[in-house]
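Consider a protein example.
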Amino acid sequence: MNILSVFRPKLIDCMREGYSRKLFLGDLSAGITVGIVALPLAMAFAIASGATPQAGLVTAIIAGFIISLLGGSKVQIGGPTGAFVIIVAGIIAQYGYGSLLICTFMAGIMLVLMGLARFGSVIKYIPYPVTIGFTNGIALLIMLTQVRDALGLDIDKVPADFFQKITSYATHLGSINPAATAITVASLGLLILWPRLKIKIPASIVVVLLSTLAVTLFHIPVETIGSRFGELPRSIPMPTFPAFSFETFKGLITPAMTIAMLGAIESLLSAVVADGMIEERHNSNTELIGQGIANIFSPLFGGLPATGALARTATNVRSGAKTPLAGMIHAITLLVILLVAAPWAKYIPLAGLAAILLNVGFRMGEWHDFKMLRRYPLSDSLVLLATFLLTVIIDLTVAIQVGMMLAAVLFIRRVSETTNVDIVSQETECEGAEHSITGKDVPQGVHLYRVFGPMFFGAADKLETVFTRSNQMPEVLILRLRKVPSIDATALNALISLKEKLAFRGCKMILSGVQPQPLATLKRSGAINKFAADEVCENIDMALAHARAYLEEKKQAAEHAHQA
């Protein structure tokens, strides 16, 4: 396999196309801008996940740089995202932070393998109701995780379970901190109104700066990054390989697969949106490999899972980014901020970061889809609601598994409904002149049936209708398969079973117009040997000719037997 056919980072193409000073200045401006935007988000997502603010910054720096360096999109920005908050928080709560690092490393390997196996285009087949269901569920859970910091509730540890979380909030409402609540409300108001002023400074940065100044100057009694986590170190940790064993691998395979799947979905969705903004096409397999390598290196430095971040990618494009170098500059900008300004981060109030995440969660959700539920097919609405509720009440892994299972079952039912077995007569013939029986001699005792659509396990039982719908058993049954593009093992078995039942009743079955895939399946399985040479015909004329010849032979045999 030629590795360049699967893995070809966009940075290589951009450099070969010619990189000018003008492009660099655009990338430099965009990279610095999106780096500043990413600063509060990286810390907020980490805190919401149950990790330290430093872990979020390290993820944005290490993974963000690698995703831009090796990814398949020109403008994709990678880092910690809201979609991972609930998954990461659950893994940390259940297995510990060390196991999260192993999960992330394993997920990175899975993503690389998915890219090498060319799974980039397969991800798009995840049904829309499933995607929207878990996206809205994650959005709601992100907002719920911020209630403690937004209201300043005196809770040592918020439970992971949905119902326990709600109960915990309800029982601690008496400990609301009015100052923290005021900062949250004021910050939310600023986040909503600031874009209308059309000032280029990102709203999240304004919220962090103003809320930090207010808390510092007026000594407002609220919890800050420093009071909970202490002062951030002004460096990136040295890389260390997390402790690993086969037993650990077995226990973490499911959460690692969840991280890999969600990372693949979110990164490719973000890349598709970016394509529309810059009128380009990303390389999905390269993007998966780049994301995988980023997630292999991120945990070595104590980082979190990373993927393509849609909001930061959109900011990157709107700020003038043209090549992956902008994403690399974004990571370098964060590194400089960490090295220079880390001690000041301890003054940032958690209520301000909570407001940012409340806004992210609300904007992340596709809430209008709930209004559209009554207009969607009932089956799609049920899949969306089931995925949403399972994400919120149980966890994302179960939600995706059940959602995909329901979607698959409903898809099978819908496809099976498109496969029909109909009686063909002079009156009901709908084929063109070449394949029509109109005006042709159809001997008495010959019945014709047309199968329309793929013959697979979901529609195999429809072949039985040929047997049950025959009020009078024909002497010859011609099964027209010209409109059957494919057949699977279950339908093939049903076809052979039908032939044997008809033969037991003294009826000869002839296949007409068998297409390449069904014919190849018949030959490969050996089922073709169950048919005589005159029972598999290229067209209807040949099938009718063989039917007439068979009936004539049968008639002559009967006459000889009678004379004898």
